[in-house]
Design goal:
The chain is α+β, with helices and mostly antiparallel strands. The protein folds into three domains: about 80 residues, 3-Layer(aba) Sandwich (Rossmann fold), CATH 3.40.50.20; about 60 residues, Dna Ligase, domain 1, CATH 3.30.1490; about 170 residues, D-amino Acid Aminotransferase, Chain A, domain 1. About 30% of the residues lie in helices and about 30% in strands. It is built from eleven helices and 17 strands. Strands 9, 10, 11, 12, 13, 14, 15, 16 and 17 form a nine-stranded antiparallel β-sheet that branches. Strands 3-2-1-4 form a four-stranded parallel β-sheet, with helices on both faces. A four-stranded antiparallel β-sheet has the order 5-8-6-7, with helices on one face. Helix 1 packs across helix 10. It starts with 8 loop residues before the first strand and ends with a strand. Bound molecules: adenosine monophosphate. Adenosine monophosphate (AMP) binds next to strand 14.
Length: about 350
Amino acid sequence: MQTLPPGSTIGILGGGQLGRMLSVAAAQLGYRCHIYAPDPNSIAAEVSAEFTCAQDDDIESLTRFAESCDVISFEFENVPVDPLHTIAGCAPLHPPIAALDIAQNRVAEKNFARNHGGTTAPFAEVTDRASLEQAITEIGAPAILKTIRMGYDGKGQSRIQPGDDLDEHWDAVGQQPCVAEGFVTFSHEFSVILVRGQDGEVRFWDTPHNVHVDGILAVSTAPAPDAIAAQQDDARALAAKMAESMNYVGVLTCEFFATGDGPVFNEMAPRVHNSGHWSIEGAVTSQFENHIRAICGLPLGDTGLTAKKVEMHNLIGAQAGDWQALLSDGANHLHLYGKGESRPGRKMGHVTKLHF
Ligand code: AMP
């Protein structure tokens, strides 16, 4: 275990709301964060000690950044992996690069879950128009076409119904390499959020029930309803096995569908996750604080609930304009991310409510 004392510098690749909330948690424990991101308006930089504004493949800037850090983490799983290998000697990097390699590729991710005993939706790799035809013949419709790389929040996806013109779907995903996934019939969606320490200790938060609208998370509630609780052990066992085999350190999130045949693994995020934002007030130790504790080699904090029930609602696009009305209910915990411009589909903040 490599313990970093408070006062040390934590480097974070990525400058969005996850970096912002990590930075706040780190500051509370006496650490300094150094954000590395290409956007000069990075909202994580506003609350951090240092900021390097540079491209992810700018090796010179990246090296200077890495040399200023005592440990490096990331808040965005699509950071290019190759440049990270060049800075690997400068400071420990948690979670491991292997986790990024897997999470950046939907095919690798599904095979990884299957190799650890998990169930995924039936899928076929699509490399060109002809293989799309073949994949849909094999899997059937309805199906979902997802780009293998760089997809998140329902972006880079196209839903195929029986009889659809496949040309349109192939164009909709930019004619990029994809997976065609069979449509999963599920009763609920949920995520397993765990933290793994440098000594291999694993702790789970309560399992949130997640409701998505238009492919974007809208609401997470914990504890899970019975239908999810019944599948939680299997899902947790899979997530823990995957974490162990990557020698993972930090928070790992795995998203699942609850089906009549048990949990079906959808995807993993090698980072803190939107479905765990409720843990800031709803758990004794938040996902952000425990991520910082894990990567700094500190003892992990208690993940138990602080209330009978916790709900988190995302504020998407114009919904954040309701901030005054939300604050008029004194029980609401409002989080606004400081993003200047509100666009449809953009995560602007969230609100958490505890029920005692
Ligand atoms: P993803 O980007 O893979 O997390 O997909 C976003 C959302 O689309 C999921 O949370 C589900 O609500 C839905 N979805 C994705 N894949 C499937 C699938 N194979 N079957 C049914 N719904 C899906």
